[in-house]
Design a protein that fits this description.
- By secondary structure, this protein is an alpha/beta fold.
- The chain is built from 21 helices and 15 strands.
- The strands form four sheets. It has a six-stranded mixed β-sheet. The protein has a five-stranded parallel β-sheet with strand order 8-5-6-7-15, with helices on both faces.
- The structure holds pyridoxal-5'-phosphate.
- Pyridoxal-5'-phosphate binds next to helix 12.
């Protein structure tokens, strides 16, 4: 299987190359040349454990990786999850389920991809004897998951940008308290989009990127999207057979990676009804699904920071596939996006609900608080603020919904307390002492040159 860029300006590459590069050299994102048909595999796959399912799925995509190596990398990636099912399904009532994606080491769904990506990097470094510098921008959870996925990997130096003061205290501590000497958390004075733009700017200097072996861990990395496809399959197999075909996945959405992974699996033949994209007050995506126009706006800070995103990276993959892989068109549309302008794509969106069951909804702070309160009272479950946004927009009669529970409530303790009052919010043992550890972080003005200077100081100089 070969991988092509959404901007259509570079030749197709192998799986390993696509993973190693992260972002394609033309600024586009990689996608499989063809989406395979999974239908012939489904009966057999329904019997597999999570790690076995992941291995079977990746065997179709990672065709240039030796199968014994793939098996070993995948198996190792799911050993640090606290639940035997890895991604368990919990029933709220007859037609509502949650898919718990927070049992990994940093307590949010990003661990599914980043544990695996860390191990792919490690085997690649062992094979090529080259070093890499990982550069990522995070709204909180990706950075923590990336750092914990890459910690202690030989030959890897990690730089993670995050918006200063806009992530939760536990998220910040997961990044800044590792004590690891090749991990550099960089707090940018700006929004997540500023951090992401700074990251992309550093990547654009291809000579520099090659010199320091720059690689992206943001959800622009293809391996992350593929890793996330697996829990949609797993969720489907874990649901009662009589409801499987009726389910709509509700996905709290920011950078569009999670819902994109689900949509890819649907396009590869998993028979599910559709998707509901849940946004918070930063509702550019909801607006898009309502009007067909992608209109950039200012970011309003919220207590669901992982959804505070305007320029959703993975959205480019979605538009590319809707546009029948017209790379030229994407190249042109994204010139507008980079200039801070949006675009009208109502032609491409015309039948999106009819064809794929795609719809969207929006939740406000008051909705979120009310939903956390209600689910706690009625279903005796605590849910995190992102999941609450999902449950809020999912409430519609006559549908079977599976809401992706994207983080553990304890990551956002302040909001939980606001909703249900002071109570003991369960937190895993390994995070209990984190408040007592020393923090290491560098605060930078919003300027890509300062980020680059950090990499020069800690990688080039060495
Ligand atoms: C990353 C994240 C999201 C948004 O997911 P995308 O793939 O960026 O759309 C939602 N909730 C939580 C808790 C997250 O960490």
């Amino acid at each position: 299987m070969q991988y092509i860029s959404t901007r259509g300006q570079v030749p197709a590459v192998s799986f390993s190359t696509a993973v190693a590069q992260g972002l394609a050299p033309d600024g586009g994102l990689y996608l499989p040349e063809e989406l395979p048909d999974l239908k012939p595999h489904l009966a057999e796959w329904s019997k597999l454990s999570y790690a076995e399912l992941c291995e079977a799925f990746f065997a179709i995509f990672a065709t240039d990786i030796d199968s014994a190596e793939l098996k070993e990398v995948v198996a190792r990636s799911y050993t640090k999850f606290a639940h035997a099912d890895i991604a368990p399904i919990v029933k709220l009532d007859d037609d509502r389920y949650v898919l718990e994606l927070f049992h990994g080491p940093t307590l949010a769904f990003k661990d599914f991809a980043l544990q695996l990506l860390g191990n792919f990097y490690e085997s690649q470094i062992a094979r090529t004897k080259s070093r890499i510098s990982v550069l990522g921008a995070t709204s909180g959870d990706t950075g923590a998951a990336a750092i914990h996925g890459l910690l202690g990997k030989e030959g890897v130096t990690t730089f993670i940008l995050y918006p200063d003061g806009r992530i939760s205290p536990l998220q910040e501590r997961q990044m800044t308290c590792t004590g690891a000497d090749k991990v550099f958390p960089l707090a940018i004075k700006g929004s997540f989009d500023d951090a992401q733009t700074a990251m992309k700017t550093v990547f654009e200097d291809r000579e520099f990127a090659a010199e320091v072996g720059l690689s992206a861990v943001n959800s622009i990395n293809l391996a992350r999207i593929l890793a996330q496809c697996v829990y949609y399959l797993s969720a489907y197999f874990r649901l009662p057979e009589d409801v499987r075909g009726d389910i709509t996945f509700v996905v709290p959405t920011g950078n569009f990676g999670n819902v994109l992974a689900g949509w890819l699996v649907q396009r590869m033949g998993l028979p599910i009804k559709g998707f509901r994209v849940a946004t918070n007050q930063n509702d550019i995506l909801h607006h898009l699904f309502q009007t067909g126009t992608y209109q950039l706006d200012d970011v309003a800070p919220s207590v669901a920071p992982s959804m505070e995103i305007q320029v959703a990276s993975n959205f480019e993959r979605f538009v590319y596939l809707l546009a029948e892989k017209n790379g030229e068109k994407i190249h042109t549309l994204w010139q507008d996006v980079n200039a801070g302008k949006g675009f009208d794509m109502s032609d491409l969106m015309a039948n999106i609900n009819g064809k794929y069951g795609f719809a969207s909804g929006k939740s406000t702070h008051a909705d979120r608080i009310a939903t956390i309160k209600q689910v706690y009272a009625e279903d005796n479950q605590l849910i995190d603020p992102h999941t609450a946004d999902g449950i809020k927009v999912a409430r519609k009669e006559g549908e079977v919904i599976v809401c992706a529970e994207t983080a553990l409530p304890a990551k956002f303790a302040e909001t939980i307390t606001e909703a249900v009052g002071k109570l003991d919010i369960p937190r895993p043992k390994h995070t209990e002492n984190i408040e007592g550890l020393a923090q290491y972080v560098t605060v930078l003005d919003n300027d890509a040159n300062l980020v680059r200077a950090q990499i020069e100081q800690f990688v080039v100089a060495k």
